[in-house]
Amino acid sequence: MANRTQEFTQMYATERQQRILTQARAAGRVEVAALADALAVTPETIRRDLTALESRGSLRRVHGGAIPVERLEIEPTLASRSIRHIDIKRRIAARILDELPDGGTVLLDAGSTTQAIIELLPADAELTVITNSIPAAAALASRPGISLYVLGGRVRGVTAATVGDWAEAALADVVVDVAVIGTNGISAARGLTTPDQAEAAIKSAMVAAARRVIVATDSSKAGDDHLHRFAQLSDVDLVVTDADLSDDVADELRAAGPEVVTA
C-alpha cells in the first residue's frame, strides 16, 4: 500500500510540474503564491517543484517565481553539462557501447554523453567515426583503431560542435551504420527538440544519414519541449536513458516508435 501511495504522489508531482511549465511558457513567468493558490498546495511544495524544473533545465528561478529558459535564451554549455548526472551518463554510455558495430561506421553527435562514450571505448576498438564534436575529435585523433572524419563548419562555442551548411552537405553524401544523437528535450507529443536552430539542422541531417538511430538522454530531458524539433520519435530506433524515467512516460515513448531501455 505504501508503494502505491508513493507512486501516486510521484505521478501527481510530475503532472503538477508539467502544468507549471505549461503555464510558464504561456505567460512568460509564474509566481509562487499564485501557483500555490491555483494548485491547492503549499508555497513550499511549489518551490520544490520549481527547483526540480530548474534542475531539468526547463525553468530559471527568479525572485518570487520562475521564467522559462526559452525567454532567457539560455542554453547550458558543454562544460556545465559535463559535470551534471556524471554517473548516469556513464551508465548510458556503457549501454550504448553494446550497440556499436565492430568495424562499422558510427556518427557521434556533440555532447557530454558522447564524451562519456569515448572515455569508455576500449583501446582496441576498430570503428570509422564521423563527428561534429571538436572535443570528441581531439580525443579520438590518436586512437590507432579509429578512422576519424570531422565535419567542417562554424563552431558553436556553447556546445563545441560544428554546424551549418558545410557540415550538413557532408552528411548528405554518407550512410552510416549507427548515429548516436543527444537531445535537449524528448516527448511523445513533440519528439526530439533543442533550443538552437543550427544544432537542430545538423542533428536532423545526422538522423537522415543513419541506418540505425540511437538517442542518448538522461531522464531529466523527458517532457521538455524546446524551440526547434529535429526528429520525430518514429525516426528513432532506440532510446537509452536511466532508470528514473517513469514507466508511464517510457510507455508513451515506446508507443511513438522507438525501443526504450534504461541503464
Task: Give a written overview of the molecule.
By secondary structure, this protein is an alpha/beta fold. The chain has 11 helices and 15 strands. Strands 6-5-4-9-12-14-15 form a 7-stranded parallel sheet, with helices on both faces. A 3-stranded antiparallel sheet has the order 1-3-2. A 3-stranded antiparallel sheet has the order 10-11-13. The longest helix is centred in the N-terminal third of the chain and has 26 residues, at 2-27. It is elongated and about 60 Å long. The model is unreliable at 1-11 (pLDDT under 50).
Helix content: 40-55%
Mean pLDDT: 89
Measure the end-to-end span: 28 Å
Q: What overall form do the CA principal axes indicate? A: elongated
**What would you report as the Rg, rounded to the nearest angstrom?**
19 Å
Number of strands: 15
Structure described in brief:
By secondary structure, this protein is α/β, with parallel strands linked by helices. It contains 11 helices and 15 strands.
Write the layout of secondary structure elements.
Blueprint: H1 2-27, E1 30-31, H2 32-39, H3 43-55, E2 59-62, E3 65-68, H4 69-72, H5 78-82, H6 86-97, E4 105-108, H7 112-120, E5 127-131, H8 134-140, E6 146-150, E7 154-156, E8 161-163, H9 165-171, E9 176-182, E10 185-187, E11 191-194, H10 197-209, E12 210-216, E13 228-231, E14 238-241, H11 247-255, E15 259-262
Parallel strand pairs: 4-5, 4-9, 5-6, 9-12, 12-14, 14-15
Antiparallel strand pairs: 1-3, 2-3, 7-8, 10-11, 11-13
Helix pairs in contact: 1-3, 2-3, 6-7
